[in-house]
Specification:
Elements: E1 3-4, H1 6-9, E2 18-21, E3 32-34, H2 48-54, H3 65-77, H4 81-86, H5 93-112, E4 115-127, E5 130-140, E6 146-158, E7 161-164, E8 170-173, E9 179-183, H6 188-209, E10 216-221, H7 224-229, E11 238-239, E12 246-249, H8 256-273, H9 279-292, E13 293-295, E14 301-303, H10 306-318, H11 325-328, H12 339-355, H13 357-366, H14 381-396, H15 399-411
Helix pairs in contact: 6-8, 8-9, 9-10, 9-12, 10-12, 12-13, 12-15, 13-14
């Protein structure tokens, strides 16, 4: 749901939005590109214990930072969730949850056909209790260049061993206490802009949609590469999943408002629906609000639904075909046409412009009757797509008729 999967979206109509995971179109200028023979990429992933033997390097001391780094690499290679989580800081609950989702995503990606490996290196000791390491994630997928993304994590002493403990962030919090922005030292300006824009957008959404937001954590990173490494994803500018921090790159600071409008839509929809809206509703509605919610030269936020028509026109110029709801239910983020954004936006625009925003909200709120499923959106599509269809049909009639009427609407 909620990701900036950029390389799928280049050339599509969602210009300027956070495409890909959520959301979010950005260029990946920061990830390193590797050939098929790159040393970080093998059919089975890196076998770090074997590497040590081959190079004649003495075995490292059990429990030392170097030893822990090898265990993390091996856990990723072996798809070993328990071992991977053993070396994450349980005392940092948000990071710990995100790391659980990270290893689940890595396993999911491998099942989709990706090659994925990690290289954890360069432990730089600050004192006897903490230091930093480089966490490099290399991914390859058929038809795309191999990408390597890098983030620097803190590592701290925990008993007789060491564990990962997120990026060494600074933080600022809104006056209401609802929004906290985590940022790296030296990123004070984009952090303050992020806090201001996020606060204003959340206030606007709260009034417009009667949304009562829970506390929101936003982590900002100077590069796309860092965001991507923390997910893991090949190329991201933004990310949001329920139970995790909202993540953004600040390398295009002029677009922070638009990115936040998109990603905070995901946050709101997840809250309203108990995260039971499938990805074409999540991405479609986030794309809709991402272009219709703007900040004017006077600093005020406004809603202009006319911009959705302009967006739809661009989408239809790219392709006259429109996917049905049934077809959208079979599409995930590996779709090269990024249909969950384009066709999802066409669906949301059609429903809102022909039946009104109140009916659309009624459809979203219907989904809250179902229990929350603690998985990332793409991992539970087989469950939440039928729930979404049920909600659509409850408010608008049969999915087949909605799909047919939508095609007629755009053919005029």
């Amino acid at each position: 749901m909620k990701r900036n999967y950029v390389f799928m979206l280049l050339g599509l109509f969602i210009l300027g939005l956070l495409v890909g995971g959520c959301s979010k179109e950005t260029k990946q200028a920061d990830g390193e590109k590797f050939t098929e023979t790159n040393k970080y990429e093998t059919d089975a992933g890196p076998n770090n214990n074997q590497k040590e033997e081959d190079k004649g390097i003495p075995e490292v001391q059990e429990g030392s930072p170097d030893w822990v780094m090898l265990q993390i690499e091996k856990a990723v290679e072996d798809n070993d969730i328990d071992s991977f989580m053993h070396y994450q800081n349980k005392e940092n609950p948000i990071f710990y949850k995100e790391q659980k989702r990270w290893i689940e995503e890595a396993i999911f990606k491998k099942k989709q056909g990706y090659k994925l490996s990690v290289d954890v290196s360069n432990f730089m000791k600050e004192d006897d209790t903490k230091g930093t390491v480089f966490f490099k994630v290399t991914m390859a997928f058929t038809g795309a260049e191999t990408m390597s993304n890098l983030v620097s994590y803190q590592m701290i002493k925990a008993g007789d061993s060491w564990v990962l403990n997120d990026v060494p962030f600074e933080k600022i919090t809104s006056e209401s206490g609802i929004i906290t922005v985590y940022y790296k030292k030296g990123e004070e300006e984009p952090a303050n802009k992020t806090l201001t824009d996020a606060t204003d957008i959340v206030d606007y959404y709260a009034k417009m949609f009667n949304w009562k937001p829970e506390p929101i954590s936003i982590k900002i990173y100077p590069t796309n590469s860092e965001v991507s490494a923390t997910v893991p994803w090949m190329m991201l500018g933004g990310w949001n999943e329920m139970g995790e921090s909202l993540k953004l790159t600040t390398n295009t600071s002029s677009q922070i408002f638009k990115y936040l409008a998109h990603e905070l839509t995901h946050k709101m929809v997840s809250d309203i629906t108990k995260d039971n809206a499938t990805i074409y509703i999540q991405e479609g509605f986030a794309s809709y609000l991402g272009v219709t919610i703007t900040r004017g030269s006077d600093g005020k936020i406004s809603y202009d639904h006319q911009k959705a028509f302009e967006n739809s026109k661009k989408a239809l110029e790219a392709s006259k075909s429109i996917k049905t709801i049934g077809e959208l239910g079979k599409i995930d983020y590996s779709d090269p046409e990024a249909s969950m954004y384009r066709d999802g936006s066409l669906l949301s625009t059609y429903l809102i412009e022909t039946h009104g925003m109140d009916s659309f909200q009624e459809m979203l709120r219907y989904l809250s009757k179902f229990e929350y499923i603690d998985k990332r959106s793409e991992h539970k599509m087989d469950i939440v797509h039928p729930l979404t269809v049920e909600a659509i049909e409850k408010v608008y009639g049969s999915a087949e008729k909605v799909s047919s009427d939508m095609k007629n609407y755009y053919s005029k």
